[in-house]
From TrEMBL:
Residues 94-103 have a biased composition (Acidic residues). Residues 83-103 are annotated as: Disordered. This is Nucleolar protein 16. Belongs to the NOP16 family. The keyword Cytoplasm does not apply. Keywords: Hydrolase, Nucleus, Protease. GO terms for molecular function: peptidase activity. GO terms for biological process: proteolysis; ribosomal large subunit biogenesis. It is found in: Nucleus, Nucleolus. Pfam families: Nop16. GO terms for cellular component: nucleolus.
Amino acid sequence: MVRRLRRTKKNQKYDYNRNRKRLNIKDRLNGRVKCPEIRKEYDQNKVPAKNIREMGLAYNVNRAIPIPNVKRQMKLMERELNNAKPPPAAVATEDGDGSDPEEATAVPVVAKETVKKTRKPAPKQHVADQMEQEANEFNGIRYRLPRPQVRQIMMMVDRYGFDYAAMAKDRRNYEQETWRQFRAKVRRFLRIPAQCTPYLERKGWLDCDMTDATDPRWKEYGTDDEA
């Protein structure tokens, strides 16, 4: 009896438009490390976990910084308290006889302190130190607004100044945003120097004090703090 082929297997056809050589090379590759510091010191002959450990970094964050187990901590505290508690003192009888002096002078049992082994410094510790230094040096704003949104903000400010109520009534307000949303957008735009500096230079507002409420150019019309 001839064995029947499954419908899915029967209908499979070879795709001649696929570059099998390129796909096989792509499958064999482990991917590209995006961090330049790690990529420079990465050894292809070692597994990723060992590579990361040698650089002084944590491969598994859940093992490096585990979630505290409250139940286990309570059990350890109870065990330490029970071991450190002194034995009950001997109660003297009416005749003045005390208990056994050896029992009275018993020394409480103290748990042995586990001596932690000192870890050897990572052979490529400079990678972690360099990454930490770069992270501490940058204190600016990484967030940037999309280009279409920046163009919309510049167009609205050119047309209406800081009159947010007029911006909300503009016919190009396709998203039907309120004047408060426009105000938040403009304020965020002015807090990103990389995006607002060229615009302020073109307007001649770079050296102006925007916090001056008496200047009519910076008076924000339609805001809550309007007198």
